[in-house]
Amino acid sequence: MTELLFNPFDPAFRADPYPFYDVLREKAPVYLSPFETVVLSRYEDVAVTLRSNDFSRDIEKNANEPSSAVQNRKRTREHRRSEGGGKSILNLDPPDHTRLRRLVSLAFTPSSIERLRPRVQQLVDDVLDIGADRGSMELIDELAFPVPFRVISDLLAMPTERSVELREWSQHLTASLEPTADDDDLDRAEAALDHFIPYLIGIIEDRRQHLGDDLLSALIQVEESGDRMTTQELIAFVLLLYVAGHETTVNLIGNGMLALLRNRDQLTLLRDDPGLDGVAVDELLRYDGPVQLTVRVPVVPVAFGEIRVESGTVVMTLLGAANRDPAMFTDPHALRLDRTNANRHLAFAAGVHYCLGASLAKLEAQVAIGSVIRRFPNVDLAGEPGWRDRLTIRGVARLPLSL
Ligand code: HEM
Question: Which of 64, 166, 192, 237 might form a disulfide with 172, Cβ 3.0–4.6 angstroms?
Answer without folding.
Answer: 192
